[in-house]
Amino acid sequence: MIYDIAGLRILIENRCKYTERFCAAYLSADQTSPVHLSAKVTNEEFYEEKNASVQDFSDGYIENICLYRGICRQLPSLNRMLLHAAVLEYDGNGYAFLGKSGTGKSTHTGLWLKYLDGSKIVNGDKPILQAAKEHFIAYGTPWMGKEGLGCNSSVPLKGLCFLEQAKTNEIVRLSPSEAATRLFSQILLPTDEENAAKTLELADELIAKTPAYLLKCTISEDAVKASYEAMTGKEYSKR
Amino acid sequence: MKIKKGFVLRKVGGESVVVPVGEMSKQFHGMINLNETGAFLWTFFSAEHTVDEGVAALLAEYDVDEQLARADVEQFVKTIVANGFAE
Predict the structure, then answer these.
(1) Do A192 and B10 touch (CB under 8 A)?
(2) The domain containing residue A189 runs over which residues?
(3) Chain A contacts of B14, Cβ < 8 Å?
(4) CA-to-CA distance for A135 and A130, rounded, in angstroms?
(5) Together in a domain, A153 and A118
(6) Neighbouring residues of B53: CB distance < 8 A, sequence distance ≥ 6
(7) Tens-level pLDDT at each residue, chain A (239 residues)
(8) Which residues of chain A lie closer than 8 angstroms to B8, CB-CB?
(9) Which residues in chain B touch residue A193, judged by CB atoms under 8 angstroms apart?
(10) CA torsion A117→A222→A84→B38, rounded to 10°?
(11) Which one of A10, A63, A145, B23 is at 20 to 30 Å from A173 when CA atoms are compared?
(12) Which residues of B touch A (CB under 8 A)?
């Protein structure tokens, strides 16, 4: 079936029904016009993923993971890239929160939802970014992490916020090279020359167009205040 | 000395990085960070050149004395060879 994801027409050739249910909200009304890219999982790739998985996942789940990886590896040449991050929308702007698994992306974004009325999660784990003139655009996708938080929408990306757990709250602006170092562990690097080179070019452009911060934070409203004020430039008023 | 095919060099956030592609990505996992001289030499040695030619190129490009340039080139070549990146 053909799906509309991140402004692209994507043909997904799945064998298990899992992916059809999973991507239902993104099904294209036009199933005949040409597509931008297609994804299909080879037996080799499927069994490699299945053998490497720590849990006994269903075949549909395994195929689904492989399909997204296959899609994402082709994105750079289409001016897009996968970002491992939680992207929030607030007041029409997008903010990405990044960190190793377990650093509290969902905890911190959960606090934004709690304290900032009107904020919503565009994608809780694996949004697609598209390079655009002034800012990157972050897109929701069917793949949004184990909590399944996200929606089929897009938002201009105004900030990158790397998270670290701490005893107090502190936010600092990162230099381009510091941002690059941290960003590398949150992107997918394809292995073909064209897409690998384009990924590095997109990463450079992302850093040039999006201010990056390091937030050392606790689980508190003060942590929200710190990231909100740094990234929006506005004063946070406690409720 | 010549660096094997299968690498891509780009500047990201002002820093030069090299990543393996194609067959090379199966042998070598990770990313190489290069300083300015390293990036210059990487590009230079992407074609076959001798150490002496590398020193001459470095001297033509940067305001350094020959002794320092030679030490830089020798160290660079040694690192490339030790990592198996030389043809």
Answers:
(1) no
(2) 80-232
(3) 176-177, 180
(4) 9
(5) yes
(6) none
(7) 999 999 999 999 999 999 999 999 999 999 999 999 999 999 999 999 999 988 889 999 999 999 999 999 999 999 999 999 999 999 999 999 999 888 889 999 999 999 999 999 999 999 999 999 999 999 999 999 888 999 999 999 999 999 999 999 999 999 999 999 999 999 999 999 999 999 999 999 999 999 999 999 999 999 999 999 999 999 998 86
(8) 193, 196-197, 200
(9) 8, 21-22
(10) 140
(11) A145
(12) 8, 10-15, 17, 19-22, 25-26, 31
A146 inside domain: yes
The single residue listed with the structure tokens 């198996």 is: B84
Question: Is A237 inside a domain boundary?
Answer: no
Amino acid identity, position B53:
E
- Residue A236 CA to residue A38 CA, distance in Å, equals 44
* Count of domains for chain A: 2
What length does chain A have? 239
ipTM of the complex: 0.93
Q: Is the dihedral of CA A42, A47, A49, A55 positive or negative?
A: positive
How close B25 comes to chain A (CA, Å)? 6
